[in-house]
Amino acid sequence: MGVGAVQENVKTMILTVSAGLFAGACSMAIGEFVSVYSQLDIERAQMKRDKATRGQKREHEEGNKKQLPNLFQAAVASTFSLGAIVPILAAAFIANHKLRLAMIVAAVSLASLAYGAIGSFLGKSPMVKSCARVLIGGWMSMAITFGLTKLIGSTGLEI
User: Could you give a single Gene Ontology term from the biological process aspect (predicted)?
Assistant: First the structure.
């Protein structure tokens, strides 16, 4: 939406968004890896403290190790790429700028509802609440990105 606010050329838009997709996917995967690694360190330290203070049995400790987060699984599970490919596919074949933006909003809205439903199912949480939260968050994100980019693109950015 941000690129679409200031750039009507579809080829430029796809190139720019694709670069952002890969940069964002790498950033999110590395961020997830670092976050889960930090969580793993905290849990290991807690296990050591528990063992020192309570003298836990070895079996219990082995069971806890099996429940520790998997770093690489967390990095791979980052859904940034999946989410970012939706607007690219929606916009790639539409030459008309306004229609392209409308298709992006429609496709991202449907994808947001699907992500909310999947998250609700996996987390066993209320479906309507989860879908609404993801959909409204997506709309807010698109509106803010579009608005700020349009403002900066039309007035210029002076430093």
Answer: intracellular manganese ion homeostasis
Task: Please tell me what DSSP assigns to residue 8.
Answer: -
Indicate the domain borders of the chain. Answer: 2-155
Per-residue pLDDT of 17-64, as tens digits, reads: 777 777 777 777 777 777 777 777 777 877 887 788 776 555 555 555
Non-local CB neighbours of 138 within 8 Å, separated by 6+ positions: 108, 109, 111, 112
Name the nearest CA neighbour of 120 among 131, 136, 132, 135.
Answer: 131
Instruction: Give the position of tokens 């080829």.
Output: 11
6-14 long-range contacts (CB < 8 A, ≥24 apart) are 6/149, 6/150, 6/152, 6/153, 6/154, 8/97, 10/91, 10/92, 10/94, 10/95, 10/100, 13/91, 13/100, 14/88, 14/91, 14/92
For 21, residues 6+ apart whose C-beta sits below 8 A from its C-beta are 80, 81, 84, 85, 88
Write down how long the chain is. Answer: 159
Residues 54-76 have pLDDT tens digits of 765 555 555 555 666 666 655 55
